[in-house]
Amino acid sequence: MHHHSEKRSFLSSPPKTPQTDGDDDDDDDSGDGSGDEQQGRKGRRTWQWWPTWHELTTHYFREIGFLACLSQFAGATVFWISAFAGLSPILNALSTPAANGVFWLPQVVGGTGFIVSGGLFMLEVQPSWHRPAPRVLGWHIGLWNLVGVLGFAVGEGGEGVEYASTLATFIGSWAFLIGSVIQWYESLEKYPAVLRKSTSTIPHVDV
């Protein structure tokens, strides 16, 4: 069953189907109560923004996909400062040291987060760290997002430096667009589904 049919479970797992033959819905509630606090009393885990510290240290910090998303989130958050400071009324009123601090520096820090994220997304699907996986869609998503973070140029180079910086931004924007289209295709191709236990007691017989 496609998960979109679950109208009432947008931020939580779908409700459990009725169990048969005395199955208990609250199997996870037995014990000393020191288990997963987010496990609902009806046997379902609700969606949450932040996992517990125990889950972070024992699972998520060891998962390369989570680290890649965390790096991208941090990079985008810092990059927002540069986008805001880049507005013409603000940028034109800044001195050179101030522009370096609130415009160029956040671009470098935020772009570094994107670079780390793209690299980790590529490593996540590679068979080993030194072997690329060009036949995997997820690898190309990380690659194009990595290409999108091209360097900037600023200084006394005149029109040539300004042209190179503008060209890098133009190419990087197209690379981000290509990566987004591939990611869109990949997400639609996976056909997410909700798996439920069958309540039927009839044994399966191969014919």
Automatic annotation (TrEMBL):
Top-level division of the source organism's lineage: Eukaryota
Segments crossing the lipid bilayer: 64-91, 103-125, 137-155, 167-185
Chain intervals for the UniProt region annotation (Disordered): 1-44
Biased amino acid composition, Acidic residues: 21-35
UniProt keyword terms in alphabetical order: Membrane, Transmembrane, Transmembrane helix
The keyword Transmembrane is annotated on this UniProt entry: yes
This protein's record includes keyword Secreted: no
Coiled coil: none
Polar residues composition bias: residue spans: 10-20
Name of the protein in question: Integral membrane protein
Source organism (scientific name): Apiospora phragmitis
Upper taxonomic lineage: Eukaryota, Fungi, Dikarya, Ascomycota, Pezizomycotina
